[in-house]
Specification:
With 147 residues, the protein is mainly alpha-helical. It has one domain. The protein is built from eight helices and two strands; from the N terminus they run ααααααββαα. The chain starts with 11 loop residues before the first helix and ends in a 25-residue tail after the last helix.
């Protein structure tokens, strides 16, 4: 079983949301929580899509997580059971976009969602105008620099 108990929110489905977010994004639950946005994102989704639809997505996710004993099994189950159904696929894609870009249906959730988008970590960059790279950062060669 791949679900671990998370103690921040008293809602059982929050744990499932975090576990499936980990699988969908490739970032650990700890890294996702370090953004400071996990609870905000969870509550935002609950207020922006029909609760029954989100609960169904989370129940499917829970079953996948409980019945997957390896990363390959998990990946295959997500592809077969979530990405094969247009309704759950749309939710999964919105969750991925939420974590990476900080947006839900094209709008930022808040100013922190822009700053903490996972896209900046993947690019080894900082969000322009929001987080500075640090003193003397210009002296450090960029990651994968050929110069």
């Amino acid at each position: 079983m791949i679900i671990e108990k998370i103690l921040n929110v008293d809602d059982y489905y929050y744990d499932v949301f975090m576990a499936i977010s980990e699988s969908l994004t490739g970032f650990s639950v700890n890294e996702l929580q370090a953004t400071g946005l996990a609870e905000i994102y969870y509550r935002h989704i609950l207020t922006h899509i029909e609760a029954a639809t989100f609960i169904e997505f989370l129940n499917i996710s829970k079953n996948i997580l409980e019945n997957s004993y390896s990363r390959d099994q998990l990946k295959n189950a997500i592809t077969a059971e979530i990405f094969s159904d247009p309704a759950t696929q749309a939710i999964a894609q919105n969750v991925i976009t939420l974590w990476y870009m900080g947006t839900w249906e094209g709008a930022y959730i808040n100013d922190l969602s822009y700053k903490e988008g996972l896209v900046w970590t993947v690019m080894h960059a900082h969000p322009p105008g929001a987080k500075q790279p640090g003193f003397k950062s210009w002296n450090i060669k960029p990651v994968n620099s050929n110069s």
